[in-house]
Amino acid sequence: MTSIKAVCSLCNGRSWTREIIGSEVENFRCLCFKARLLNSYLGPELAKAPHRHSELYNLQIDPETNEEVGDRTLDDLFIKGEWSEVAQHIRWAVGVKHIADPKFSFRIVTDHLLLRVFVGDFAYRNRSQQVRDDIETFNGITDLVSPSSLLIIRLGNMAHPNKAAANVLREVLNIRATESKATWLIEGHTYFGEGHTFYNYDVGNYVEENFEQINVGGDIEAARKLEAELRASGDESAALDETESDPAPVEMQTCERFKAAPKDWERKKRGPSKWGKKRGGGLMEAL
User: Which candidate, 221, 285, 223, places its Cα nearest to that of 255?
Assistant: First the structure.
């Protein structure tokens, strides 16, 4: 059965409207056309997110300095919350920013994609000759993370352990910092701490010192993880009330998320497996 698309009542599907200004008739882009352009810029994932206002982009004039403030696309942020909630804030921030500055660009990547690009899976020479001229390739991690004005990294998408993962994330953050470009880290449903594939103490301390940590709500699993740690440390008064439901996010809240590394902490290095010795070492050992 053929689906029938709704026709815009303002332009009757022409994407343009006409207005009489003085003695002349001028053409203007219809609102439906502008909406299609914006959705194309946002991409299918963000375009499906519900519309909402967000403090991640809320320009105001500072009365003391008389300068514009409230553009968080210029800042390094660690955003805590479920992706379904975070996507709504990102949609508003990058969409309104693009309207104000058409040259503004952003890219959303997963931690899994960072690692795959790092090991060369998306390099031009590793692509099939039939398709590599027609698809996007990344010969190095810089090709992926450097061009955009804002890089948004979704953490928690890779579950398989990898020795190079945390160092890859640190290298990406170093590249962005060197170029003075903003980066947003999205924690998602997986607690970013000890045991996380892309976490080590070096990365954790760097994020804590250089990223502002913001809670947009909707993250029950991470909250329960934090509660368990507080109870284990004996701080019962700081634990969350189990009878209370997860509150609706009404405003951004700065939160402390990481612990400093113990002074006597030393990483135990494991030697190569017997399989790695027999085969001359595999990809995991090389990383």
Answer: 223
**One-letter amino acid for residue 277 of the chain:** K
CATH code at position 205? 3.40.50.300
pTM of this structure: 0.69
Task: For the chain, state the CA radius of gyration.
Answer: 23
133-162 core/surface letters (b: 16 or more CB in 10 A; e: else): eeeebbeebeebbbebbbbbbbbbbbeeeb
Please, what are the averages of pLDDT over each run of 10 residues along the chain (287 residues)?
68 79 80 83 89 91 87 95 90 93 93 82 61 64 90 89 89 95 91 89 93 80 59 53 45 52 44 44 37
Question: Per the domain annotation, does 267 fall within a domain?
Answer: no
Q: Is residue 185 part of a domain?
A: yes
**Which residue range forms the structural domain that includes residue 145?**
50-261
Residue 97: inside a domain, yes or no? yes
The Cα–Cα gap between 67 and 61 comes to 5
Q: How many domains does the chain have?
A: 1
Separation CA 186–CA 106 (nearest Å): 14
CA distance 281 to 265: 28
Name 214's bridge partners. 79, 254
User: Residue 287: inside a domain, yes or no?
Assistant: no
Please say whether the dihedral angle defined by the alpha carbons of residues 12, 39, 43 and 176, taken in this order, is positive or negative.
positive
